[in-house]
């Protein structure tokens, strides 16, 4: 027969008390006598900590979508017209899912209206003086943007050698459709002609790359700067006075289309800006008479 000690009894009672005393744990036992002479058993119970059911809050939504359809789909699924705000800026649309919250951060979804590679690369050379080699490389890389008749410029640049000598004391030869310069060759002097203007068709936005309906067409003029010293190369410049306006119009059309699809929502043309409140601080005093 097993021998139990006082310590065993205390431990057994403590284990039994876990279930009988609301998940408490008996720390000590004592005997007391009340005023009527009755013996009482007094238990000192330590309650167990409740089960840890805490989970971290869900992460804030900071989604980025890549086209208008995805942006509109998110707004229609998760936004409430009475609480949401949509800001449309020059190059982005931002959804504030709930502008009415007064605790925590406001969640956002953004659609950056990024410009296409074609638009940015053409814009990057507009108005800049280019060598024959640089202009030819750009034209070859962007043949897909050129109208069929504009390919004449590519052909003219291909048939002109980079080492071609241009008469620096000659004048440009212009007519209604072409511009030419006098060059020296083995056979003597001749006029090398180039189209005076080319037609370029391109997508302004990344979202337009796979579509054809929103592509923009621009007329780009070619300007040639003749050398002022012997053996200097001629410089070529592409000019389009409406390039910036074409980009801005495409963005404006996209903003208007987006606003039309979000009827019922508060759509604002601007940029959201939330600044942290200075809790417990007074704003700095200002002297209304200071100048």
SSE blueprint:
Blueprint: H1 6-20, E1 24-33, E2 39-47, E3 62-64, H2 68-78, E4 85-88, E5 92-96, E6 108-112, H3 117-125, H4 132-141, H5 151-158, E7 165-166, E8 173-174, E9 178-185, E10 188-195, E11 197-202, E12 216-225, E13 235-239, H6 243-261, E14 266-269
Parallel strand pairs: 3-6, 4-14
Antiparallel strand pairs: 1-2, 4-5, 5-6, 7-9, 8-9, 9-10, 11-12, 12-13
Helix pairs in contact: 4-5
Written description of the protein model:
The chain has 291 residues and is of the alpha+beta class. The protein has 3 domains: 6-47, no CATH class; 62-112; 117-241, no CATH class. It is 25% helix and 28% strand. The chain has helices spanning 6-20, 68-78, 117-125, 132-141, 151-158, 243-261, and strands at 24-33, 39-47, 62-64, 85-88, 92-96, 108-112, 165-166, 173-174, 178-185, 188-195, 197-202, 216-225, 235-239, 266-269. The strands form 4 sheets. The chain has a 5-stranded mixed sheet, with helices on one face. Strands 7, 8, 9 and 10 form a 4-stranded antiparallel sheet that branches. A hairpin with a 2-residue loop joins strand 9 and strand 10 (188-195). Helix 4 (132-141) packs across helix 5. It is elongated, with a radius of gyration of 39 Å.
Brief rundown of the structure:
With 291 residues, the chain is of the alpha+beta class.
Q: Could you describe the largest sheet, including whether it forms a barrel?
A: 5 strands, mixed
Helix content: 10-25%
Low-pLDDT ranges: none
Reading the helices and strands in chain order gives HEEEHEEEHHHEEEEEEEHE
Provide the descriptors you would attach to this structure in a database record.
291 residues, alpha+beta, 5-stranded mixed β-sheet, 4-stranded antiparallel β-sheet, elongated
